[in-house]
Amino acid sequence: MNTQLPIGVFDSGVGGLTVVKEIMNQLPDETIIYFGDTARVPYGNKSQETIVKYSRQIAQFLLKERVKAIVIACNTASAFALETLQKECPVPVLGVVKPGARAAAEVSANGRIGVIGTEGTVRSGLYGTYIREIRPEVSVYGKACPLFVPLVEEGLCEDEVTVLMAKRYLQPLLAESVDTIVLGCTHYPLLRGVVAQVAGPEVTLVNPAFETAKDLRELLTKKGLLARKDRTPEHRFYVSDGAEQFRAFANSILPCEMIETDAVNVKVFA
Question: 74, 89, 145, 256: which one is catalytic?
């Protein structure tokens, strides 16, 4: 396979850009093709059948763009569609749940771990499943935080209302004496400061986006697919709706400027 082929990354919306940011930082020579399903966001309140259908459509679009690997930069889609895409796609497929679960299992000292995420991610219980595969004795406590995503997308990451919601969401986890909290939605790293403030210094925060980029580097190295350092990556960004809004948000968090974004109807891909 051509090592200069791009890496495909997709999410239900803009949250997966936190994964893209980590990939850009850790793998600066790699070209990224990103798809944000902004017309159908959020995924967290949809059925597994629907999420698998959407994920298949997006994967087919990325494969048409000749990617060498696919990263599911969405916790809900990772929970519900990862195994399906790994079986069906001719390129390696990574999700964000397993890397985050592994890191949480490794860093927790008291074996009491909290997971915050969408309704779908928390309902799936997949973080707990993976964590207990590594450390069977660990207790995992999930808490859905449905208002965090719209707060991030409204640019209210440090607003007073976000702090108040963080206190409400995290209180049940802190009451269980968790010493580790997994930021189980790709939007949540943008709330890291608020979550850390509310949780306190004794609680370690795990960012699955960072861990996923590490796993991607290891995968590409193992398969001999790391890009050569002989050209500047030309990243491409696609959405299913709202290209202008997406571009503004992306330019505010990514380490590159003037991101061009095109709208694509992935429903045409079977």
Answer: 74
Domain boundary among 159, 190, 208: 208
Residues near 254 by beta carbon (within 8 Å), at least 6 away in sequence: 17, 20, 21, 24
User: Across-strand partners of 69?
Assistant: 7
* 74 belongs to the catalytic site: yes
Catalytic residue among 89, 145, 157, 185: 185
- In a structure prediction context, what are the per-residue pLDDT tens digits for the chain, which is 270 residues long? 789 999 999 999 889 999 999 999 999 999 999 999 999 988 888 899 999 999 999 999 999 999 999 999 999 899 899 999 999 999 999 999 999 999 999 999 999 999 999 888 898 899 999 999 999 999 999 999 999 988 988 888 989 999 999 999 999 999 999 999 999 999 999 999 999 999 999 999 999 999 999 999 999 999 999 998 878 888 999 999 988 888 888 888 887 765 678 888 887 675
Residue 153 included in any domain: yes
Please check whether residue 197 lies inside any domain of the structure: yes
CATH number of the domain enclosing 141: 3.40.50.1860
145 classed as catalytic: no
